[in-house]
Write a structure and sequence with these properties.
four-stranded mixed sheet, single chain, 449 residues, alpha+beta, three-stranded antiparallel sheet, globular
């Protein structure tokens, strides 16, 4: 069967299920079972071709359609923006389209994305405390980046998919907790991140049937969290979190997820995409290098002025985030039941139904952006949806650090290091992982003489 037929046939199952859930109940045992069956049937298709999945449904059904867990997917820029800015929001323990069904993998602590009310506000307060303003720590971050890149010269290459996450893990643990990770710790953390899909399976399956895979990851998480509590910064995080009635288990686990999921997986993916864009466009890369040379001589420590004056690389980062958003879905829960029109058919939905926003399709919305699939640095980025927008409770608390870190990385990468060749630059639009050219390798990687 052709992919299009599979995608649309699967949606027919979702349409069939909608009125049944209205009768049997969304969260009754039979309702949960029916939803779970359809969720996995949809997920099997989406895991192998997520971009095609989105566009086939959008082009054939419209800007709203059912997806995965009987969720209502919103795909236009205006719809996704409206979802993001809805306040107050009610969130489930979901990572985009992925339902986190195995609490054991998260040590029975919800993702900060799944917290609500005072817990959510408290977790964000701790994050803002833990994450430095990059312009104020440019020299420290620059030193850490330079150290990591120098280490990469010893292997003679910089591998985007393998090395960038390791660098982020090491640096984030140093700036958030003042602790150094061993190579074994970094490998274990990378394995934990790669194993996150295991948390989308029922807890019994994830914890017991797949224990050979999950148990080492869970032990590593416990090990790191105990180390966090020995950090010289731990007391200050505990004090901030306690003001919102968060206990030490919630604080430590939320910081673990912030570092490993948003910080490492998200930022390393966007950084990899920025490097990929500049590898492919020689003229743009030369312009970026000229700007970097103009605002920083490379001899003194990197400072606030250099970061603030590097407007070209800033727009490169924003446009790359639009084209290749590392976070592609935003999720919340309906606070009341209602009815939605999908493909000309009125469908009931229940309180607690997931409302998903497809950041990827919204960022490529032709109504919002001219020639949306083209790279254009002159765009208006005032309402960019990557990092979940700005000025509301869903906005990413790490946006400033993410952009600042990528800038600092580019300062050092393009001014102090060189490579004689690189492999093919290819973005993966099939696997449901962060979009970045994971297989890109900068070969002959060395310090400039």
């Amino acid at each position: 069967m052709e992919l299009k037929d599979k995608v649309l046939q699967a949606h027919d199952r979702q349409l069939w299920l909608s009125p049944i859930l209205a009768k049997v109940g969304y969260n009754t045992p039979i309702g949960k079972l029916l939803r779970l069956v359809v969720y996995y049937m949809d997920a099997i298709i989406m895991l192998g071709a997520w971009r095609d999945f989105l566009y086939i449904r959008k082009e054939n059904l419209g800007d709203k359609y059912f997806a995965v867990d009987q969720a209502i997917m919103h795909s236009s820029h205006s719809q996704v923006k409206e979802l993001m800015y809805t306040e107050p929001q009610v969130r489930g323990n979901d990572l985009g389209i992925i339902r986190m069904l195995a609490p054991s993998y998260l040590l029975d602590n919800p993702l900060s994305l799944g917290m609500n009310g005072n817990e959510h506000t408290g977790a964000r307060a701790v994050f803002f405390q833990a994450l430095p303003e990059p312009s104020e720590k440019a020299d420290v971050l620059g030193h850490l980046v330079e150290r990591s890149l120098t280490e990469a010269t010893q292997q003679g290459q910089l591998h985007i998919g393998n090395d960038l996450p390791k660098i982020l893990l090491k640096i984030l643990h140093e700036i958030v907790f003042d602790i150094s990770l061993s190579e074994a710790d970094i490998i274990a953390s990378r394995t934990y991140i790669k194993g996150l899909p295991l948390a989308s399976l029922p807890n019994f399956v994830s914890k017991y049937l797949l224990a050979i895979k999950t148990a080492p990851n869970i032990r590593h998480r416990k090990h790191l969290i105990e180390r966090y509590k020995q950090s010289p910064k731990w007391a200050s995080y505990l004090q901030t979190g306690s003001q919102y009635q968060l206990n030490e288990h919630q604080i430590a686990n939320s910081l673990f997820d912030m570092i490993h999921i948003a910080g490492t997986a998200g930022t390393s993916a966007l950084l990899g995409s920025v490097i990929g864009v500049l590898c492919l466009d020689n003229a743009l890369r030369d312009q970026v290098i000229s700007e970097l040379n103009a605002v920083w001589n490379g001899k003194e420590s990197l400072n606030r002025n250099a970061l603030e004056q590097s407007s070209l690389i800033n727009n490169v980062i924003l446009e790359t985030a639009r084209l290749y958003p590392p976070v592609r879905f935003v999720s919340q829960l309906a606070t009341e039941s209602g009815e939605v029109a999908i493909a000309g058919q009125k469908c009931p939905f229940q309180k607690g139904t997931r409302l998903l926003g497809s950041i990827f399709t919204a960022n490529h919305d032709a109504i919002r952006y001219n020639n949306p699939d083209s790279f254009d640095l002159t765009r208006d980025f005032s309402d960019i949806l990557s990092w979940n927008g700005e000025g509301h409770e869903r906005a990413c608390p790490g946006k400033s650090l993410s952009i600042g870190f990528i800038k600092i990385f580019c300062f050092y990468l393009f001014k102090k290091y060189q490579w004689n060749s690189f492999t093919d630059v290819k973005w993966d639009f099939e696997k449901v992982t962060a979009v970045t050219p994971n297989d890109l390798v900068l070969q002959g990687f060395a310090q400039r003489v």
